[in-house]
Amino acid sequence: MSKFVYLVPLFPLIGFLINGLGRKAMTKSMISIIGCGVMLASFVVSVLVFFDVKEHGATVVNLFSFIKAYSFQVPFAFQVDQLSSLFLLIITGIGFLIHLYSAAYMHEEEEQHFGRYFAYLNLFVFSMLLLVLGANYVIMFIGWEGVGLCSYLLIGFWFKNDQYNYAAKKAFVMNRIGDLGFLLAVFWLIFKLGTVSYGDVFANIDKLSDLDITAITLLLFVGAMGKSAQLPLYTWLPDAMAGPTPVSALIHAATMVTAGIYMIARSNILYTLAPVSQTVVAIVGLATAIFAATIALKQNDIKKVLAYSTVSQLGYMFLGLGVGAYTGAVFHVMTHAFFKALLFLGAGSVIHAMHHEQDIRKMGGLKKHMPITHITFLLACLAIAGIPPFSGFFSKDEILMAAYNSNPLYYYVGMAGALMTAFYMFRLYTMTFLGSFRGTHEQEHHLHESPSAMTIPLIVLAVLSVLGGFVGIPEVFASDAHSLEHFLAPIFAESAKIQHGHHLSHTQEYMMMGVSTILIIGIILFAVSKFKKTQAQQTESSGIAKLLENKWYVDELYDTVIVKPLHLLSVFLKNIVEKSGIDGAVNGVGKLVGYGSRQLRLLQSGQVGNYLLIMVMIMIVFVLIWFNDLTIMNFLKKLF
Amino acid sequence: MPIQYYIYLSLALFSIGIIGVLTRRNAIIVFMCVELMLNAVNLLLVAFSKMHHGVALATDPATTAGIDGQLFVFFIMVVAAAEVSVGLAIIVMMYRNVHSVDINFLNRLKN
């Protein structure tokens, strides 16, 4: 079955072509059937591939030679192993649900825009599949760029709004900064090893010096920072909310931002051999987790809160990668994909019902109007907050335990972030669903539960969010119950040999879980009681709250430190270097020729005498040259 | 007579011709100076031809070497005669048009 793996990315590509080219000719129902159908087909193949891998192990499927230059070769090959097949399931499975949801959510769009939307969405999934399936860093880079492009297209989907276009450009530029790091790392690999295929790179790793490995891993991490929205390149992700809500779900859950995690998990051996890079990854991840969580505390846009929570959760994944808990990070990618997709789709459902109102201060009391959305959203909140036995608890716990083993400080800071997560998620939940409605009567009158095409994905995702954690039950509850770890073991085997972490005793672990759970429940109760009676009128916040509301003024900081000086430099280059330097040189040559010709023209005076004089003078010059010839001189000497 | 005298004479004639061409503005005089230069060259040609023939005769009494130079001179004189007739015709036409034989007067081709 593995040799048919090319079908997985092929289906979305076909969907992209049909929907993209025929968007003006087809009806909306045809477009959505094709858009969702290809995803379903892709998902079915992924499931088959997954079970095939589970049974027969990993293979590399070679399709054709992509680049061939003397001894350097890049085959177009697909890496079918445990890690990629797991990601295939996440991407195509959640991707399919989001496509299904989109068919109902985007129904108000005109036909050709509807087709354009589905074409982009399919292309997005195709790029992500290419990224995950590629058997070398070059194919991965193609997918890497592809998701960047598609995020640009989809964030700026409503291109008539300038603000949205700016957000799209911001996402693209931020990603480009990271991509440069990735590209440099790939070049470094080619320079040192002459190959980019995973198998060859990992087999020849002893040929790399420590410096090489550290530099390569750090450069790769710069790429991951851009794509997975880590400090300092995270600001594009919250602005990416400009796109349609299902797109946010796709970006945040199934595709795009998990690319960085996947890439590091894929290169885990390199990172394990570079402790410096690991520390950098862990610290950046932790800093992002806590930083984004503080911002999320005071946001009032339902999607912004979720966006910052994604940044924060991605930070946890990087923390996991940094402390060597690769399985934990991948596990968290999976559970996060479930509950974050659910949260975004739930938020989309709310926004749909509220007629594109996103401010949670104007919501409240939606519980009785939207029962399914309410229940599923609550389950997702419990999952992300880390209440046992919901999925988020298992994955977050695994990462935090590994962090504790590496450095207890990581654990305490991470725990603080987790408490903030619980707080802001339940602030969001309470302000949206509990209390009394704070919007207009018009809006209240139109409140309704979303159609079944939107609620079915919610229910499926809710089930996954609740039960998804049970593939990774920690050892403390039952030995050998962590099926995900067993499944992924071959991928991380090399790293596991090198790592030698000490493990906590079971009592210690129980105690930590117990304390954290009690703390989280306490925070949740506090948040619910605090925000239940929110009034429509809000007072102007001040001090630290104002700082958080304005996102620590990071955008403004970047604006003054980077954007403005760069702008000044461009103005300088345009006015001084371009206009006087380059243009001056080019125009100067023209002017010089013109001036020279004008002077030369004076020779043509019309006076025959002048012409003759010049002629005679030139003849004299020739005669003098001629006289210098020795034979003639000798002949003349003989005569006279 | 030594060859040097001929060379000096033709040099002098040629120089007078050049100076005349350069300094005079009357088209007819310029024309005469051109003829003067032409004849200076003719004189030189005849002189060298004679010298060459004389040297060759000393070794071979039946030689014809050097006499073709004198033949050339006749050709040149014929051509010069034709040229004079054309040139004078042009000058006459010029005089009819502008009532002047000043060569600086006709400068309409300038620029």
Give a description of the structure:
The complex is a heterodimer of chains A (640) and B (111). By secondary structure, chain A is mainly α. Chain A folds into four domains: 1-129; 136-537, no CATH class; 563-602; 603-640. Chain A is 74% helix and 3% strand. Chain A has helices spanning 7-21, 28-56, 82-105, 111-133, 137-155, 162-193, 198-203, 210-227, 236-239, 245-254, 258-266, 268-272, 275-296, 302-322, 326-353, 371-385, 391-406, 408-433, 441-446, 452-467, 483-498, 506-531, 543-549, 554-601, 608-627, 630-639; strands spanning 59-69, 72-80. Chain A has a two-stranded antiparallel ribbon. In chain A, a hairpin with a 2-residue loop joins strand 1 and strand 2. The mean pLDDT of chain A is 84. In chain B, 77% of the residues lie in helices and 0% in strands. Chain B is an all-alpha fold. Chain B has helices spanning 3-23, 27-59, 67-98. In chain B, helix 1 (3-23) packs antiparallel against helix 2. Chain B has a single domain, classed as Helix Hairpins. The mean pLDDT of chain B is 87. Chains A and B meet through helix 25 of A and helix 1 of B.
Please summarize what this structure is:
The complex is a heterodimer of chains A (640) and B (111). Chain A has 26 helices and 2 strands. Chain A is mainly α.
Which key features would you list for this structure?
heterodimer; A: 640 residues; mainly alpha; 26 helices; 74% helix; B: 111 residues; Helix Hairpins; 3 helices
Reading off the top of the CATH hierarchy, the class of chain B is best stated as Mainly Alpha
Please state the average pLDDT score of chain A: 84
Query: Main β-sheet of chain A: number of strands, strand sense, barrel status?
Result: 2 strands, antiparallel
End-to-end distance of chain B: 52 Å
Content-based structural category of chain A = mainly alpha
Greatest contact between two chains: A-B, 12 and 15 residues
- Count structural domains of chain A: 4
Uncertain parts of chain B: none
* Helix and strand run of chain B: HHH
Write down the oligomeric state: heterodimer
Q: Compute the average pLDDT of chain B.
A: 87
Report the portion of residues of chain B in β strands.
under 5%
